[in-house]
Design goal:
Strand content: 15-25%
Helix content: 25-40%
Number of strands: 7
Number of helices: 5
Order of helices and strands: HEEHEHEHEHEE
Shape: globular
Structural class: alpha/beta
Largest sheet: 7 strands, mixed
Mean pLDDT: 87
Distance between the termini: 24 Å
């Protein structure tokens, strides 16, 4: 997949350096990207499986290669110091799960503040194998009135697959 096949409605970074870094990482690791991104300017990217820290590296490399501005959620407690600055630069959004204002409502607020937003989430909610996904990402999509775009990390073929959107 080439960046020119990305709909103009999606948020972009316009970073040649990022595109070079992402392309280099994917090429060195032997990964390719397939599928078509929707024209919707806002959606939740449900990326699975999330069973390793490599998933994050591959997903960030895909984001960089395609020049997409993709945001992701993280516990507010990891957004500290230089690591926190790096996570924010890569698109990280801190959420406080202890807050009375729940995560679903926080995500709804985030979507309402942006004309275009891709929010990447791991449906498992953890890095270990889960026979059943958590459902929070579905409630987030319903609350924000955005589609879910499933994305698959296929380790056998080393392919990052973008699937058809679900509403």
């Amino acid at each position: 997949m080439k960046a020119e096949h990305i709909p103009n409605t999606l948020p972009r970074t316009h970073s040649p350096t990022g595109r070079f870094i992402g392309s280099t990482i994917l090429k060195l690791m032997g990964w390719q990207i397939t599928g078509t991104f929707p024209g919707d300017p806002k959606f939740i990217a449900a990326i699975a499986p999330h069973t390793s820290n490599w998933d994050f590296i591959i997903a960030i490399a895909v984001k960089l290669k395609l020049g997409l501005k993709v945001q992701f959620l993280g516990k507010h407690s990891i957004f500290v110091g230089p690591f926190g600055m790096l996570l924010r630069k890569l698109g990280g959004l801190p959420v406080d799960r202890r807050a009375s204002h729940g995560v679903v409502e926080q995500v709804q607020d985030i979507f309402s503040k942006h004309p275009a937003l891709i929010l990447a989430l791991a449906p498992e909610g953890t890095r270990k194998y889960m026979p059943q996904w958590k459902t929070g990402f579905i409630y987030m999509a319903q609350s924000a009135n955005v589609p879910i775009v499933p994305m698959l990390l296929d380790y056998r073929s080393k392919t990052f697959c973008v699937l058809e959107p679900l509403t």
